[in-house]
Amino acid sequence: MSVMTYAAHLAVAALALAPATAVQEQQGRPAVTLTLPAPAGPLPVGTVAVRLVDRSRPDPLVRSKRYRELMVSLWYPAARSALPPAPHMAPLAAADWDRRSAPPMGIAKGAVDWAATVTAARSGAPVERGGGRLPVVLFGSGDGGPRTLGTALVQDLASRGYLVVTVDHTFEADQVEFPGGRVVRALPLPARLTPRVIAGLLERHARARLADMRFVLDRVAALGRGEAIGGVALPAGLRGAPDLSRVGALGQSLGGSVAAQLVHDDRRVVAGVNLDGGYVGPVAVTGVARPFLQLAAEAHTRESEPSWRSFWRASTGWKRELRFKGAAHGSFTDLQALLPQVAAALPKGGVAVADFVGTIDARRSVAAQRAYVGAFFDLHLRGKATRLFEGSGGGFPEVSRIP
Q1: How far apart are the C-alpha atoms of 199 and 216, rounded to whole Å?
Q2: What is the number of other CB atoms lying within 10 angstroms of the CB of residue 319?
Q3: Run of H or E including 168
Q4: Domain ranges of the chain
Q5: Partner residues linked to 58 by β-bridges
Q6: Are the CB atoms for 167 and 205 separated by under 8 Å?
Q7: For the ranges 264-278, 354-368, 380-394, which has the lowest average pLDDT?
Q8: Which runs of consecutive H residues, i.e. helices, occur in 54-174?
Q9: Torsions phi, psi of 86, nearest 5?
C-alpha cells in the first residue's frame, strides 16, 4: 500500500490532531450555520444514541482500561413526531471539533456554529414498522473520524427503511461524547509518521474496529430478540425491529476496509460497501465471496492502489467499482455537503475545499452516493431488482463503472 493511501486513511485524524493555529480566531462576525441535505427516501427518520460496554475484553487501544466502551447511534424509519430534531454533533463534541478539528481545515475557531447543525431525524421518535422488521446496516467512518461524519448518507438509508448503526471507535475517533458530559479524545499520533508507523497504526485500528463491529452486531442481535441494550429507555418499537437475516456493512476509508473484513469474517453480514478506502489486513489479499461495492474518488484506481487490485482479483461474489469524476477522499463524508457552505459564507477564510472534497458538484455527489448505496442494499438485502449498476453512469454522468 502506498504512502498516499496511508495519508488518505489518516486524513481526518491528522486534521483533528494538527496544531490549531492554521487560522486566526474569528472576531466580530456571527458564526455561520450549516445544513445537511434532507433525506430522499419516503419515510421520516428517528435516532437514538446509546452507550455500549463490552466487558469481555480490555480496551484494545488503552490496555490499562479493563473494558471497551463505545458510543453508537441507531437511525431508523420513524412515525411522524413533534419531538425535536437530533443535532448533527453532540454539544461538547461540537465544541471540541470547533477547537481542534476545524482550524486545520482553514476554519477559524468560532467561525461556524457546529452545534447548530441539525439532522432530519427526531430524537427518540417511535419506530415505523409498517413494513415489518428492518434490514440492518453497520456504518464506520474513516480513521480518526467521528461517527457523525456519515450522517447525510446514513439518514437517507434510514428514510428508505433501514436500521443503520453508526459507531464511534473510542480513543481513535477525534472526539466521543459520552452521557454525563464526558468527552474522550483520540490518542495522540506518534511524532514521526513514517510509512511503517502509519501501517502499524492502521492495522491496530482495523483490528480494534473489527472487534467493535462484531460486538455491536451482537448487541443489535440482542435487540432483534426483543432485549434491551445500553441500559437506557429505547424508542417505542425498537426492540424486535432488527432483522438479522439481512445485515450489510458500510464504511468510508478505513471503515470501508473493515466493512470488507466484516463481510469476510462474519456470516451474519451478507453484503458490503467501501467508500474510497484502501484495504488493510487479511481481506486485502483474500477478497470476499459476497456482494461488494466500491465507490472511488477520481484519483483512486486499481492501478495506483495495490490493495484494491489484490482485493478485486480475489473477490468472487457480485462486485462493482464506480469512480466519481472530480471527487476526493473527503467527498464520501459529510464534508462534501458542509465545506462548500463554509467556503461560500467565509470567502476569505482560506478553506481549501478542493483539497478535501474535490471539484465535483456537492449536491450531485451526495445524490449519486445515496442512489448507488441505496440501490446496492435494496438489491442484496431486499431482493429489489435495479438497473443502476448496468451501463455507464445510471443517470449520473459524473460516475463511471470500472470493469
Answers
A1: 25
A2: 15
A3: strand 163-168
A4: 3-401
A5: none
A6: no
A7: 380-394
A8: 91-96, 151-159
A9: -75, 140
How does DSSP classify residue 187? P
- Partners of 176 in the beta sheet? 184
Angle between helices 335-345 and 362-382 (to 10 degrees): 170
Look up cell 487479511; give the residue. Answer: 282
C-alpha cell at 209: 474496529
pLDDT in tens, 65-102: 999 999 999 999 999 999 999 999 999 999 999 999 99
Pairwise CA distance, residues 49 & 54, whole Å:
16
Architecture in CATH of 3-401: 3-Layer(aba) Sandwich (3.40)
> What is the arithmetic mean of pLDDT over 292-306?
94
133 burial via Cβ count (<10 Å: 0-12, 13-18, 19+): middle
> Other CB atoms closer than 10 Å to residue 32's CB: what's the count?
19
pLDDT digits (tens, 9 = 90+) for 311-349: 999 999 999 999 999 999 999 999 999 999 999 998 776
Three-state DSSP state, 216: helix
